[in-house]
Write a structure and sequence with these properties.
The protein is of the alpha/beta class. The protein is built from ten helices and twelve strands. The chain has one domain: TIM Barrel (Alpha-Beta Barrel).
Length: about 325
């Protein structure tokens, strides 16, 4: 298999595509989506599974190796295992992961694994029932531990649990989450809140910097730096003693990792976005539907991939929600 052949204007090799399969969600997380929902995309604008697979088929010979299926909440799109099966059959694709809130994992983990899914990232912002409902603003009755266990039982691993830490809302649970990595082979990653987009009440005051998060975790034992699980992303990892799992921090606010960014994203309606937090995008859907080759468009998009995001310079509320661009 050839090496990465796609490089952006700063020489970063691009081998990772995040694929949003829907803009909809069965949660309304405080930090992500307004309670009333968004202006949902019309169904006709959303790429079919065949169209998504065709994008991947055209990009794989250029060096695309790893895929993440995301949303909105990807598991609410019907027949998700059918997409995984199609993507798995594309030559060159080495790794397929799923980002999910986990609610549908008890039913879907085994069929997804059987279709060829490698692993899951599970979002979980509280271990307390009442707080889960207060943050997700939906009561779907499943604990994060049950969701992670369903993924583990189906053989989906490594299991990463993503916790968005919010001061005054769930930051008192940092140690409880860290203990999960001491008791299970799970990788608990604390994400700095990005106070962007549609949420009305969260502000920069709710951001807990990663140094403070790690300080709280270190109350449980000495942290040693660790390579972390496979499926490299932007997290820095640590292990507490001989724990089976690790603790990670993802620091979009305090330490940007744009210099090593190897990823781009495909929105549910077929726009290729070269930065999660910017407006640079190329419409792939119309050319795809009219049978045009995508390679020149992809190269054009990469030539314009920004050097770094500018979250820190932007005003709160001035950005589009992550869910709109397809988290
Ligand atoms: N619905 C799936 C889920 O929740 O995992 C996939 C989409 S979600 C937008 C992807 C990830 O983005 C989740 O881990 C979520 O916690 C994170 N996220 C969303 N909004 C965020 C924000 N404002 N700050 C930090 N992380 C955020
Ligand atoms: Fe839905 Fe995920 Fe956004 Fe929560 S973070 S509202 S689960 S898309």
């Amino acid at each position: 298999m050839s090496d990465v052949v796609l490089r952006d204007q700063f020489g970063r090799g691009i081998e990772y595509l995040r694929i949003s399969v829907t803009d909809r969600c069965n949660f309304r997380c405080l930090y992500c989506m307004p309670l009333e929902g968004l202006e949902w995309l019309p169904k006709r604008d959303i790429l079919s599974y065949e169209e998504i697979t065709e994008v991947v088929r055209q990009l794989a010979p250029l060096g695309l190796r790893r895929l993440r299926i995301t949303g909105g909440e990807p598991t609410i799109r019907p027949e998700l295992p059918a997409l995984v099966r199609q993507l798995r059959a594309v030559d060159g694709i080495q790794d397929i992961a799923l980002s999910t809130n986990g609610v549908k994992l008890p039913a879907l983990a085994a069929p997804l694994r059987e279709a060829g899914l490698d692993r899951v990232n599970l979002s979980a912002d509280s271990l307390r029932d009442d707080r889960i409902v207060a943050i997700a603003r939906r009561n779907l009755g499943l604990s994060p531990v049950q969701a992670a266990q369903a993924a583990e039982d189906a053989g989906l691993g490594p299991i990463k649990i993503n916790v968005v830490v919010m001061r005054g809302i769930n930051d008192d649970e940092v140690a409880d989450f860290a203990r999960l990595a001491m008791d299970h082979p799970w990788h608990v990653r604390f994400i700095e809140l990005m106070p962007v987009g549609e949420m009305r009440d969260l502000t920069w005051e709710h951001v807990v910097p990663s140094d403070e998060i790690l300080q709280r975790v270190s109350a449980l034992g000495v942290l040693t730096s660790d390579a972390g699980p496979k499926g490299n992303g932007p997290a820095q990892y640590y292990r507490i003693g001989g724990s089976p799992g690790t603790i990670g921090v993802i620091t979009p606010m305090t330490h940007t990792y744009c210099g090593s960014c190897n990823r781009v994203r495909l929105t549910a309606d077929g726009r290729l976005r070269t930065c999660l937090y910017g407006d640079h995008e190329v419409n792939l859907r119309d050319p795809l539907r009219s049978g045009e080759a995508l390679e020149p468009l992809f190269r054009k998009a990469l030539a314009e991939k920004p050097k770094e995001h500018n979250l820190l310079q932007m005003q709160v509320g001035g950005l589009r929600a992550l869910s709109q661009v397809g988290g």
